[in-house]
Amino acid sequence: MQDRTILQQLNKINQQRISNLEKENALLKQEGELKDRIIEIDQKEIAATNRALDQMKEVTDRALKLADSGKPSIWETYGPIAVIAILIITVASVL
Fold first, then answer.
1. Residues in the chain, pLDDT under 50
2. What is the dihedral of CA 45, 51, 56, 59, to 10 degrees?
3. Domains in the chain, number
4. Is the Cα torsion angle 14, 19, 22, 24 positive or negative in sign?
5. What's the whole-model pTM score?
6. Helices (DSSP H) in 1-95: which residue ranges?
7. What distance lies between CA 87 and its chain's CA centroid?
8. What is the pLDDT of residue 76?
């Protein structure tokens, strides 16, 4: 009789252990799913950052091209001064 009571108690303890292990297993699955979601979000964030960097590069390249095309050439900058200098030299040599 006493053996049977002990076996029943052991059985009850084993059932509790099984229940606890099942709960732990379910929690581990949830944790794994959450980690997968975090990894997915991180990958999306990395992809968005890469796209933004590519777009920034394109914008920077366009800005540099515009800046280069907007620069006056050396003749546009110094041409009028050169013409004036030539005129002064010509007038001075005639006088």
1. none
2. -150
3. 1
4. negative
5. 0.53
6. 2-70, 74-94
7. 60
8. 72
How far is residue 46's CA from residue 90's CA, in Å, rounded to a whole number?
A: 68
Q: What is the largest CA-CA distance in the chain?
A: 141
Look at the block and give the residue holding tokens 């303890």: 13
Chain centroid offset of residue 93 CA: 68
Structure tokens at 17: 């252990």
- 25 phi, psi to nearest 5 deg: -60, -45
* Cα–Cα distance list, 8 to 1, 53, 93 (Å): 11, 67, 127
Give the domain extent around 87: 2-94
Question: Tokens representing 5?
Answer: 């009571």
Which residue has 């929690």 as its token pair? 27
- The amino acid occupying position 77 is T
Q: Which residue has the tokens 């009850």?
A: 12
